[in-house]
Amino acid sequence: MHVRRASRGLSQRLALGVCAVLMVACSTARVGYDWIPALTLWQLERYLALDREQAQETRQHLDALLDWHRRAELPGYAAYLEQTARRLEAAPTVDASVFEDWRERVHGAWLALVPQLAPPLSALALSLRASQIDRLERRLAERTEELHEEYLPPDSRRQIEGRIERWLNRTEFFFGEVSDAQRQALQRLAGQMPAYERLWLQERELRVQTLLTLLRRIEQERPSPAAASRWFEDYLAGVWQSPDPARQARIDEASRHADSISVVMINQASHDQRTQLLQKLRGYVGDFTLLAAR
Asked: I need a labelling partner for 89 at 20 to 30 A (CA). Which of 101, 102, 187, 199 fits?
């Protein structure tokens, strides 16, 4: 299954598991969810070198955010995934509307998080020193370089091979081992897919620069907590949409291409592969239901 990628930089560090938990194995979802605050704090310290006071305050915000998310959002995730499982169970084939709906739900889940994320993020931003923002810029530049090496190798054939490998890994995660015929179809479809890797990286870099500009503005102007929170809320609400309509049209086109591959993989899935997909979805349903009830 494909979910449109977009960089959220530091903003998603506080929500590391909120959407990412949908991508972990069912057997580890409950354990992984509880580790979100510790793992997110570790990432923030790695990128920002937080002092003790910043770390303590951030951990308190993370714990509160996770408690809210568990109670307010996980029941809806469970209900949606059960609905999706039933839809796949009832239909011998699917069309792109399944994935269009998936993307809309993920976007909606993100927008529900924005008002909860903005206050703690702005509080952290107001505590940052210029040297910490400089460190973040260096760390993000290093990550950008790593991504360029991974997604845009000098040899275009390696770029296609990497795309095919990512699709194979994603398909096997949901369906298990693929047949030779499925592998060949996936190689053909992913190989024919237009190269959107550069577009995605450019969008990521734009988000990173927008974030850094916002952090430096907060560090220099020292606005009130309410104003800083509004600035962050505006930033977070826009991370799924390119400010350039032409670029957004290309992102939407990339999503449609990815959806078409996902449709083929589901419709070509064997009975055993569909069974594994349904078991995985319902494993999430069970995990989210148990977490929400705690």
From this structure: 187
Collapsing DSSP to helix, strand or coil, 236 comes out as helix
Residue holding tokens 């972990």?
24
**Cα–Cα distances in angstroms (integers) from residue 170 to residues 101, 173, 212, 245, in the given order:** 19, 5, 32, 29
| pLDDT tens figures, 157-176 | 999 999 999 999 999 999 99
CB atoms within 10 A of CB 124: 24
Comparing CA positions, the residue from 119, 127, 116 lying closest to residue 49 is 127
pLDDT tens-place string over residues 56-112: 999 999 999 999 999 999 999 999 999 999 999 998 899 999 988 988 998 999 999
Q: pLDDT by residue (tens digit) across 16-60?
A: 333 333 333 334 566 678 888 888 899 999 999 999 999 999 999
Residue 65 in domain: yes
Q: How many other C-beta atoms can be found within 10 angstroms of the C-beta atom of residue 53?
A: 9
Does residue 76 lie within any of the structural domains? yes
Distances (CA, A) of 157 to 27, 69, 181, 199, 255: 36, 43, 22, 18, 22
Whether residue 1 is contained in a domain is answered as: no
Indicate the number of domains in the chain: 1
Structural domain harbouring 232: 9-293
